[in-house]
Amino acid sequence: MRFNRRRVSTGLFLRPTLKKKGAFTAMFNDAVIISTFVMSFLLFLGFTEFCDRT
Predict the structure, then answer these.
(1) Could you list the residue ranges that cross the membrane (predicted)?
(2) pLDDT tens figures, 2-54
(3) What does the alpha-carbon distance between residue 22 and residue 11 come to, in Å, rounded to a whole number?
(4) Euclidean distance between CA atoms 10 and 38, whole angstroms
(5) CA 37, CA 30: separation in Å to the nearest integer?
(6) Considering Cα of 19, then 21, then 25, then 30, what sign does the dihedral take?
(7) pTM (2 d.p.)
(8) How far is C-alpha 14 from the chain's CA centre?
(9) Residue span of the structural domain in which 31 resides
(10) Residue 20: is it exposed, middle or buried by C-beta count within 10 angstroms (0-12/13-18/19+)?
C-alpha cells in the first residue's frame, strides 16, 4: 500500500512534464524515481545492519 501511494505521488509530481514530453518519457522518469527510492532504502537498511554488527 505504501509503495502504491508513493507511485501515485510521483505520478502527480510528474503530471506537468507529461504534457511537454511523451507518455513513455514520463513513465520512464516515474520508474527511475521509484527505483532510486528503493535503492536508497535498501542501501540504508544494509548500512544500518552493518553498523549494528560491528
Answers:
(1) 21-47
(2) 444 444 555 555 555 556 667 778 788 889 999 999 999 999 999 888 887 76
(3) 14
(4) 13
(5) 11
(6) negative
(7) 0.46
(8) 12
(9) 2-53
(10) exposed
Which set of grid coordinates corresponds to residue 16?
506537468
What span, in angstroms and rounded, lies between the C-alpha atoms of 32 and 30? 5
CA distance linking residue 41 with residue 38, whole number of Å? 5
Q: Return the pLDDT at 21.
A: 62
Q: Are 26 and 17 contacting, i.e. CB atoms less than 8 angstroms apart?
A: yes
Q: Which amino acid is at 40?
A: S
- Could you give the angle at the alpha carbon of 48 between the alpha carbons of 37 and 29, nearest 5°? 10
Task: Classify residue 8 as left (phi > 0), alpha (psi -120 to 50) or beta.
Answer: alpha
